[in-house]
């Protein structure tokens, strides 16, 4: 078994584990370079350059075709228009991607240098790193021929700038930006708390110690985007002994006579917090077992949730019904919604 090698330049000597020379052979070196047609014939080189430029131009045309189909073919509920638009979108995307992809491959195969080179390892000299990096970049540019081939350079720039635009345009169909939609709900000062799903208002006297109600804001059932609003506004309502609550400064009036309301949307990944343990006053998310302590402002005591459930400030109106004092003071739902 060979474990080291030494010898004169150009010769490789294999040495066994016992130090005995096993074999000796000449370094074969690199295979001879076989010039391509474009390397020998200037006309073939020029023809290859025009072919690469044509492929990049096809990519530009494909991008423009995509935009024509996307913006200038109105959909009028007819299958013919839909088919035409899909055809132009598909062909435009195919030509845009295929043109620039094949063009770059053809450029590399026919015009860029294809000879193999070797370079001996050398010690890295920090003071010359910048000069070495600059030389490498200049060598790459010289070998690619992009400096002396403006036709390829210009068509490549056009294709590269236009090719990503169809993907950006498609993102437009994903819908408008959320804006403040993740930070605002239907809750507001004076909005009554109602039972889910009936929408019946809840009196403070109806909430006994140990009970829990699934609550939605009044008017949710008639809202235009009912499901979207419910996903943010649904609340769990519970009543504890007021002496068991531990509100932080500034939140002493967020509860009413031991009645507290917390968002039902788990701050982990948005699952519904549906289980309430009467004896421990813990809220449990059954999806990933995040557990929240109602006595201490629904702080996380177990599980992957990163922050407490947002609390809804509540009070009682003149008729004895529970109403919100304001909207939530922080975004509801998963923690990443805070960055929305």
Task: Describe this structure in a few short sentences.
This protein is α+β, with helices and mostly antiparallel strands and 340 residues long. The chain is built from seven helices and 13 strands. It folds into three domains: 1-30, no CATH class; 52-174, no CATH class; 193-339, Rieske Iron-sulfur Protein.
List the helices and strands and how they pair.
Elements: E1 2-6, E2 11-16, E3 21-26, H1 37-40, H2 42-71, H3 79-110, H4 129-144, H5 150-162, H6 165-171, E4 193-195, E5 212-217, H7 226-233, E6 235-239, E7 259-263, E8 275-277, E9 282-284, E10 291-293, E11 299-302, E12 314-316, E13 322-324
Antiparallel strand pairs: 1-2, 2-3, 4-5, 5-6, 6-7, 8-9, 9-10, 10-11, 12-13
Helix pairs in contact: 2-3, 2-5
Cofactor: [2Fe-2S] cluster
Transmembrane segments: 52-75, 87-108
Family: Belongs to the Rieske iron-sulfur protein family.
